[in-house]
Specification:
- It is a single chain.
- The chain is 61% helix and 12% strand.
- It is built from 4 helices and 5 strands; from the N terminus they run αββββααβα.
- It has helices at residues 5-22, 55-72, 78-105, 123-151, and strands spanning 26-30, 33-38, 43-44, 50-51, 114-117.
- The chain has a 5-stranded antiparallel beta sheet with strand order 4-3-2-1-5, with no helix packed on it.
- It starts with a helix and ends with a helix.
């Protein structure tokens, strides 16, 4: 059934991922002045130029949101649903690895820049926790169904 608690968890995880897509994940500063803001899709400079070198961050989060929404509708096969949840968690772990790489090695403009992450960087972790809770509820349902089948 769709009216299970894991549906709420997966829907909330997808919503959190979409919110993270829309907000800046950090700023590049030089001498205490904000030089540019980093989003999941681009790095926006104050003069309006956008550098799309960080697009993989956007792709991973968009894919996690899509997987979370798709996992809601494969409720009839709980094992596949749990595997989608595990794949989503691994993708979010990959997002953090990509985020670390891009925050350290992507250069913006000229001179020494310091990257300062924003609070938005915690949203993929929140999404990962929600997906974990959904997976745990899915496996509990599967265990309950197997126990009921054994009793019959």
């Amino acid at each position: 059934m769709i009216q299970r608690i894991q549906t709420i968890y997966l829907l909330a995880a997808a919503a959190v991922a979409v919110v993270c897509l829309c907000l800046p994940v950090g700023t590049y500063e030089s001498g205490g002045l904000v030089v540019s803001k980093a989003y999941n899709l681009w790095i926006a400079s104050p003069n309006g130029l956008r550098d799309l070198s960080v697009w993989p961050l956007f792709a991973v989060l968009a894919f996690v949101a899509a997987i979370s929404l798709y996992a809601i509708f494969v409720y009839s096969n709980r094992i596949v649903q749990a595997r989608f949840c595990m794949f989503g968690m691994l993708l979010l772990l990959g997002w953090y690895i990509l985020f670390f790489v891009f925050s350290r090695f992507v250069t913006v403009g000229e001179g020494a820049m310091e990257f300062t992450p924003s609070l938005t960087c915690a949203l993929p972790f929140v999404s990962m926790v929600l997906i974990f809770l959904a997976r745990r509820a899915i496996l509990a349902d599967e265990k309950l169904v197997r126990a009921a089948d054994r009793i019959r």
